[in-house]
Write a structure and sequence with these properties.
The protein is α+β, with helices and mostly antiparallel strands and 517 residues long. Helix content is 31%, strand content 21%. Among the domains are: 280 residues, 3-Layer(bba) Sandwich (FAD/NAD(P)-binding domain); 73 residues, no CATH class. It starts with a helix and ends with a helix.
């Protein structure tokens, strides 16, 4: 969406080939079904991919976070995390990306009094005023005189020139039959997995391209480690207000997080990790909260829950079956006298406020909250996407996804908590309380290591055509008129989710193409 709209603003004509329809069609979505080598590690594609105009903006949560300077730095303890550019080459495009993502501003730095040499609260995440940004951009896309949208048009093949140094055309399956699409420039923006899958399919015909057979294409597939192994206890309960959602001068919601400073990461050889206070799990009735149990009961009933949250987020909050319904009902009944007003405020902020509040924290006088971590995953060649022998309805082989985590990933999560705990105690802000015995913590991190939503790597950028697929300008090595706009090009995952950086790269790509013409 953002790429097409920006190219339109630059006076360029754009044809958008959308495999899906104007809205979600489960029949079309079946084409994205993949073989998940370890279902414990990777979410089903039905939760992570959306073949429809607007793509995963239909299910996106709305969080916008920039990558950090350290992510682009050469770190000797993070092998294969080599960016061919510095952060400053793409960071100026955050402003335009923020405009399309409706998050108000590209201001993410907001100094805070508690920041020190080990951890910082100086940076915020921003939230889209409407996470389903297709609702905002749909009319502009459909009414544009320069953007032509072809629905139910699925790319199934690639045709190169006689000397194989440029793309001549795309082969497209449509309800009316096969078509051949010619253009000056071709951009694949189909999501991390599907983009990788298409290029692997093209490579079957053009084996010397995309890094060569069994080369970098499909390798270094990454996401993030995310979960809770501890709670944070504030010395002063009111300190939670510094880490709750707030609206800035643009009207958009923001939230501070704990980040380990670059100095601390380098000194301790830790991967980039963000932390933020959260409610205890909704599905655990031991919290004895009227609001949390009421929310759980609403989410556990699918027709209601799916109207409140995207399905992947809903399932994370409801936990595994069988549900402990009776204890939650008991919490709801016993907590009603004091909890009704707080529940009203939560519902008001989530459904009546414009823009709606992205989430909520149920405050408590004890000052203890669950601590959520969101951690970098190291790139490893064995974590990869391949093709299977099974083909979808369009004749394209399905993907086989083998997402792998490492000891370094797990050790970094554990050590990052310990460093944060020490820094919190030294600052007098608080301390961590672990949810498990010390000898179980590593196992818990291993057991919960999973992703599939951020889909990083697989089509990594770099300078060496034998070790990467695209160059610093997102052009496929050896095919200058074919580019990739996707989180699949990122050589490392950082602590941030991939949306903002992916759109920033798309803005940079749009201006490069317009200037080249």
């Amino acid at each position: 969406m953002a790429l097409a709209l920006e190219l339109e603003n630059l006076g360029r004509d754009v044809l958008v080939l959308e495999s899906g329809d104007i809205s979600i069609d489960n029949g079309i979505a079946e084409a994205s079904r993949a073989e998940i080598v370890d279902p414990k590690r990777h979410a089903e594609m039905s939760l992570t991919v959306c073949r429809a105009l607007g793509g995963t903006s239909w299910t996106w949560g709305g969080r916008c976070v920039p990558y950090d300077e350290i992510d682009f730095m050469a770190r000797g303890f993070v092998a294969d995390a080599c960016w061919p550019i510095e952060h400053e080459a793409v960071s100026p495009w955050y402003k335009q990306a923020a405009k399309y993502l409706l998050c108000g501003s590209d201001r993410f730095a907001m100094p805070h009094r508690f920041s020190n040499s080990v951890f910082t609260m100086d940076f915020v995440e921003r939230w889209a005023t409407d996470s389903q940004i297709i609702n905002v951009h749909r009319d502009a896309l459909l009414r544009s005189k320069r953007i032509q949208i072809s629905l139910r048009a699925t790319v199934v093949g690639l045709k190169l020139s006689a000397n194989q140094n440029a793309v001549e055309a795309l082969e497209v399956a449509t309800p009316a039959g096969p078509r051949t699409i010619r253009a000056r420039h071709f951009i694949i923006a189909a999501g991390g997995v599907e983009t990788t899958r298409l290029l692997l399919w093209f490579q079957k015909k053009y084996i010397s391209h995309f890094g060569g057979l069994d080369g970098p294409l499909g390798r270094y597939y990454m996401g993030h480690l995310s979960g809770k192994i501890a709670s944070i206890q504030f010395q002063t309960p009111d300190n939670i207000q510094d880490l709750d959602f707030f609206r800035d001068e643009t009207g958009s919601f923001c939230r501070r997080r704990f980040l380990l400073t670059p100095q601390a990461q380098i000194r301790e050889k830790l991967l980039n990790t963000a932390f933020w206070p959260d409610n205890p799990p909704f599905y655990d009735p031991c919290h004895r909260s009227f609001v949390l149990s009421g929310t759980f009961l609403a989410l556990a009933f699918p027709p209601t829950g799916r109207r409140i949250l995207p399905e992947a987020i809903r399932l994370a909050h409801t936990g595994t079956r069988p549900y402990k319904v009776l204890p939650h009902l008991r919490n709801a009944v016993l907590g009603a006298p004091t909890g009704v007003l707080e529940m009203y405020r939560v519902l008001r902020d989530r459904f009546l406020m414009k823009p709606k509040k992205p989430g909520f924290l149920v405050s408590n006088k004890g000052g203890r909250y669950a601590l959520h971590y969101h951690a970098e995953q190291v790139p490893t060649a064995e974590s990869r996407i391949r093709l299977t022998g099974e083909k979808d309805a369009y004749g394209v082989p399905r993907a086989s996804i083998d997402l792998r985590f490492t000891e370094q990933d797990v050790e970094s999560v554990v050590q990052s908590h310990r460093i944060l705990d020490q820094a919190l105690r030294t600052s007098g802000m608080g301390y961590l309380v672990y949810n498990h015995n010390e000898n179980r913590i590593r196992n818990v991190v291993w057991d919960t290591a999973a992703d599939g939503y951020h889909q990083i790597g697989g089509v990594r950028m770099g300078k060496d055509p034998t070790a990467s697929v695209v160059d610093a300008d997102l052009r496929v090595h050896g095919l200058p008129n074919l580019a990739v706009a996707s989180s699949a090009v990122f050589p490392s995952s950082g602590q941030a989710n991939s949306t903002l950086l992916a759109v920033a790269f798309a803005m940079r790509l749009a201006h490069r193409l317009a200037k080249a013409d």
